[in-house]
Structure formats: C-alpha cells, structure tokens
Amino acid sequence: MNNRLTILTITGSDGTGGSGVQADIRCISELGGQATSAITSITVQNTLGIQEFYDLPAATVREQIEAILNDLQPQVVKIGLLRRIDVVQAVAELMRKYHPRHIIYAPVLHSTRGELLVAPQVYQAIQSLLIPLCTVVLEPSDLPMAVRQHGHANQLSAALAFYLCSGESLNEAMLHARSYLSLSPKGYTDDNSRSGELYNLFLNAIDRFHHRYSDVAFYAGQLGVSPRYLAQVTRHVAHRSPKSMIDQRITDEITRLLTTTNKPLKEIARLLGFSSQAHLSRYYKNQRGQAPSDIRK
Q1: Radius of gyration over alpha carbons of the chain, in Å?
Q2: Among 64, 111, 273, 281, which lies 20 to 30 A Cα-Cα from 91?
C-alpha cells in the first residue's frame, strides 16, 4: 500500500451509498488514492430519508482511528459526521497526538431533507476542540450551487483530501477538487418516480460498463427500455443526453489515468476499449479540446 496516498475518513455510514463513508471511499478510490475509514454512526436510511441513528461509543471510534493511524499512518484525515461530544473529544485528542499533515472538516449538520443531524451543543464542541486543529473547514461558499446535491459535499472534501495527499498546495488542491466535481455527471437523484429510478440505474450502468461500451443502445438494452425513452429520462432529470453523460464519464476516466498514473497512452487506450492510441487521442480532443499529451504535461 502506498502510504503517501492513504487517506483516513472519519464519518457516518450511509446505506444508500450516496454520502458518508461509502461515498468517500468511492471518490478517493476513483482518483487513485487508498481510502481507510473509521465509522462514527450507522444510519438506517433509504431514498425516503433517515429512519434511525446508531451512534458508536467514543471508545469504539477511538480504537478504529488508532488502529489506522498507528499502522498505515495516513497524512490526510477527512472528518464528517460527529454526533456525540465524547466522540468529538476523542477525535480531537487523537489529531493532537498523531499530527496528520492535513485535517479536513466537512460539516455534516443537516440531511438533504433538512433534518437536523447534530445537536447544537455537539457543534459547539466541534468549534472549540476540533476546528482549531483543521487545515481546511469547508464552508457553504466552498460548495457551488452545481454540487449542492446529495453526497456532493462528500465528493468535494474527499477529492480535496486526495489532491492534498498528492502534495499539492491548498489552492491547487481546491482548484483540482472543484474541477473534478464539475467534470462528473450529475449525482443520483432522490426522485422516487419511474424516471428517477431509471436515471439512477443508468448512472450505475455507466460506472460498470464505461470502459467497454459507449453507445446509448447498449445501455438502453441493459435497462430494458428504448434509446429514445432513456433520452427522455436523462433530459427530464439532468437536462442532458445519454450520450453526453457516457462520453463525460469516459473522458473523466481518461483524465484521471493521465493525471494520477504513469500508464502509457497505448495502455490507457486498451484499458478503455479504444481500438488504438490514435483513436483515443482523437476522441479525447473532440471531447475536451486538448490532446491527452497536453493534459499529462
């Protein structure tokens, strides 16, 4: 394991995968980092909202964090949902003890449905004990309107953690993190209608198959609908065509491989199903207006 790119996320678990530790791990892994985690709360939730919290004892949270910090020594720690004062105290004590290079706090105070997740007295403890130790505290102004969707605050802070872990300055890391989000497809919708469900299934399919298939007909077939109906759904939910979303996912992956690995362009072309290096270069330039070699420079 490359400790230089190891990041510890301390937050709650979201069973839907839209935010919380699951979203952090997915984002960090997609960027090429190694995600480790300590869970503070387990939620019972689905697309209708959070039904119940099970907040873990401070001793359990402490043991999780120390096990990672002692062994893997991550130099960047991302902190999200903290719901108990004794957990806040434990986290702050461990941050002072182990001195990670960067501590990022992304406040998780309300759900996307406006539910209060953290009691005022807990946030007061966070303000007095934890925030003074942080390199970055994400404020509402750090979250552009374009990314104020379920889980996107997680993505911004997780991406920021990765770029800081890569050795970038704070300004560079924030710029790249915002760029990463702006290049990503719109997030999963909380719409429980047939079109909302199909849209989310389409995003899942893109994640699974973008390295092999780029034609809309394939994805429509996977979902059991016509290409025309799939286009109606994506335009209704995201105001975009299915083809633009597929192409964006592919070009995002090319960009990630170019900027976070040393893989030759020929190998990247093979991994993503292009017939040749030249084919990939033409495709990428048509999509982004730049040659892959320019990105790598």
Answers
A1: 20
A2: 111
Give the model confidence (pLDDT) of 144-158 as tens digits: 633 346 456 678 899
CA dihedral sign of residues 188, 12, 69, 140: positive
Q: Is 232 helix (H, G, I), strand (E, B) or coil?
A: helix
Amino acid in position 60: T
* Better-predicted residue by pLDDT, 180 or 87: 87
**Distance from CA of residue 175 to its chain's centroid?**
15
Starting at the earlier edge strand, list the strands of the sheet with 76-79.
49-55, 34-46, 6-13, 76-79, 102-105, 136-137
User: ∠ CA 205-210-216 to the nearest 5 degrees?
Assistant: 70
DSSP H or E run through 181: helix 170-183
Q: Please state the φ and ψ torsions of residue 78, each to the nearest 5 degrees.
A: -110, 130
The Cα–Cα gap between 21 and 37 comes to 7
Q: What is the pTM of this model?
A: 0.65
Residue 46 CB burial class (10 angstroms; 0-12, 13-18, ≥19): exposed
Give the DSSP H/E element, type plus range, for residue 252: helix 242-260
Q: Return d(Cα 30, Cα 33) in angstroms, integer.
A: 7
**What are the backbone dihedrals phi and psi of residue 4, each rounded to the nearest 5 degrees, phi first?**
-60, -30
E strands in 213-282: none
* CA distance linking residue 257 with residue 73, whole number of Å: 25
Distance of CA 223 to the CA centre of its chain: 25
Q: Which amino acid is at 3?
A: N
* Angle between the N-to-C axes of helices 20-31 and 152-165, in degrees from 0 to 180, rounded to the nearest 10: 40
Q: Which of 13-22, 27-36, 107-116, 228-237 has the lowest mean pLDDT?
A: 107-116
